[in-house]
């Protein structure tokens, strides 16, 4: 045991040091949605909360392909750093921005179409009206979000995650201010009601994109990757590479986000109270999940750098360290959810006992599946570090759509477990993914050729 500790202590320390700023940045992103829901719920009530919360879920569903697809950039940049190739890093950065623009236009259009057909989601008339307009504004805000995510891949891949962390935290403060001002019409600003929350998100994301790009171009730290000789280098092949690896990665993220979005829709079929309770609990679970994605991103970067150096042992240790860290972190989160569920719910809503009681029970459910949720997302991350993206997409499709969603419907509607049954199905899907993805990682690590021989990584 002591020998194991000394072997993994440096890797755990390095992964944790890299993880913390990424975790804070990821937490800041999801806390924007939490902030929106907090202001809407406390200032406007349960029905606006249900409409805004569902719109956030559906908008994130559409944007998840872009968010997950762009995340491959950090691992590719980390691999290039391991090889010492500054020109490739420059080309990957520029290619990522082009891919972000493409995702922003295509997925923005899809989001607008979804808003037009919002009535097909089977919600109450009040929720449908709010949700349609809210979704349109959020769809527009995805373009600056994608540009920010693409740019931050350079910072994270080069192990400077504090840049994105600082910008995200600043945007989080701005988002809270914008929410209050635009919802209530404070001072000279118009009272936009629930839609003020969506406009606040749009303005905050524009701030993030503009700030990170300006910082990268001006900071001395990144100047070695912006030499004048790099400007003439073509980026077309890197755009194709990011799309080739990113789209399966985006679909992996999509399958998970779609599961939770469809679960929210099922909750809406049961009633506005059930949907509001579901949104409160899923907001809390999403907060810890996004923090776990920070560990996942750090694991991908560490694994990618080790792969760039062709060091099989370092690859294995980097992946193992990330899995150990997320297991410990999510275990702590589970304890908090299980013991402080009522207090956490009161942060969202106090004047509706029915919603509060339902939400408190769902937070307990969320505590139960914390461990599976964390392990599966880190499994995706460490596989991304190996540029393995196709099989994880199949695994997540199976776990969430073949196991999780059908079981949610069976437990929730056929067996009449109500919204608790929907969450039982989610737990089953997450647990299946948490088993299969790490197994895939360790099997691939065994196929990495030792230093000095031809590298063999199979991604199909």
From TrEMBL:
First and last residue of the signal peptide: none
Membrane-related topology note: Multi-pass membrane protein
Keyword vocabulary terms for this entry: Antiport, Cell membrane, Ion transport, Membrane, Transmembrane, Transmembrane helix, Transport
Protein location: Cell membrane
Protein name: Multidrug-efflux transporter
GO cellular component terms listed in the entry, alphabetical order: plasma membrane
Transmembrane parts of this sequence: 20-40, 52-77, 97-118, 130-151, 163-183, 195-216, 250-270, 276-301, 322-345, 357-383, 395-415, 421-439
Record-level Gene Ontology MF annotations: antiporter activity; xenobiotic transmembrane transporter activity
Gene Ontology process terms (BP): monoatomic ion transport
